[in-house]
Design a protein that fits this description.
74 residues, mainly alpha, 4 helices, 2 strands, elongated
């Protein structure tokens, strides 16, 4: 796929991206099929908490999670 970025100076407002029409139409078709979900207040609270914990380094690496799950199965 050929993608071209047009700088803000030329676009006047934001960066522009040029893609072939067929790929744009494919994107639009997918956009119609995939539903947009608005999170609830409770879900937003959970997301913010997760982001804060991530910034604080309170997370486990994927390999560590896999090892712990494998140990539980034994």
């Amino acid at each position: 796929m050929a993608v071209v970025m047009i700088p803000k100076e030329l676009a006047q407002k934001e960066d522009l991206v040029i893609i072939p029409r067929s790929e744009y139409e494919e994107f639009l078709a997918l956009k119609r099929v995939i539903p947009t979900v608005k999170p609830t207040k409770a879900e937003l609270r959970i997301i913010r908490r997760g982001e804060r914990e991530f910034r604080e380094g309170k997370y486990a690496e994927w390999n560590e999670v896999k090892r712990n799950l494998a140990r539980r199965r034994k």
